[in-house]
Amino acid sequence: MLASLRNVSKVFTDPRNGRGLVALNGIDLDVKEGEFLCLIGSSGCGKSTTLNLLAGFESPTRGDVLFKGKKVIGPSPERGVVFQEPSLYPWMSVLQNVMFSVQEKNGRESLAMEYLKMVGLDGFANSRPSDLSGGMKQRVAIARALAMGPDLLLMDEPFGSLDEQTRRKLDNDVLRLWKEGSKTVVFVTHNIDEALMLGTRVVLMSASPGRIEREWVLDADWPRDLSSPSMMSLREEIIGMLQACACANGAAPVQLLTIGD
Ligand SMILES: Nc1ncnc2c1ncn2[C@@H]1O[C@H](COP(=O)(O)OP(=O)(O)O)[C@@H](O)[C@H]1O
Ligand SMILES: [Mg+2]
Questions:
Q1: Taking CB atoms and a 6 Å cutoff, what residues make up the pocket around ligand 1?
Q2: Cβ pair 88, 136 in contact under 8 A
Q3: Range of the domain at 121
């Protein structure tokens, strides 16, 4: 297993009243090598917390977060992260932004150019981030994450603030990079269609406290036709589960369902 959360709970202090806020309650999640895992769920159900634990930005209150069998104790270039907001260094050129993440000592510039080529931005190497559109900035952020040479790419609603057309284009780019680089991806989205377009597995989380509700393995080839009967019915099923989770909010935890139930 590439990465695992074993009975992980995460408790934050609620800034509103200083009390403990259970963001995750006893989560078990295995990330298999080579998979494209999409994490979905309503806002506040703990998707980002899960991703940040895998990244090493947060540590669990209880339980273990493992990567390649070892406990995660902080961020590492082995685990590249792409956030919703690209957070590029504004004073650096596009190329310098990517070079900054290249781990190799030699040939950093040509390696950075290769990553820029992969995301179709080699023609913008000398531009400043402020000269780029939102979608282009996000592509630089992807190149930067890839330049770290990660074994696991963690993406937190990376295209959530982009228009639909740009999002689709970037979804296809990520899919291509995943296939070409045989990486493992954990991709957080609250867009069900995006998860159905991309994932080899879709994991649904639910809130209060955050837990894993259900998962689906998707074996359809790409490009996927979301209007096919099987995709439509899967979509309906996920929407139904999401609504049921929302209704159960605050109630006793729903029994964990597994594939085939
Ligand atoms: N640093 C933090 N301090 C306090 N509460 C937090 C912190 N980070 C997240 N939370 C809370 O934990 C819960 C899960 O948050 P998050 O993982 O961001 O959810 P999601 O990404 O699914 O929207 C929410 O109730 C959120 O308010
Ligand atoms: Mg989030």
A1: 12, 21, 23, 41, 43-49, 210
A2: no
A3: 88-149
Q: Of 124, 149, 174, which closes a domain?
A: 149
Give the chain's mean pLDDT.
Answer: 92
- Position 83 in a domain: no
Position 190 in a domain: yes
Which residue type does 229 have?
Answer: P
DSSP 71-115: E--S--TTEEEE-SS----TTS-HHHHHHTT---SSSHHHHHHHH
| Total structural domains within the chain | 2
Q: Which of 39, 45, 47, 49 to mutate to test the pocket of ligand 1 (most atoms within 8 A of CB)?
A: 49
Residues 175-212 pLDDT 10s: 999 999 878 999 999 899 999 999 999 999 998 889 99
Residue 138 lies in a domain: yes
Residue-wise pLDDT for 42-77, tens only, equals 999 999 999 999 999 999 999 999 999 999 999 999
The verdict on residue 211 lying in a domain is yes
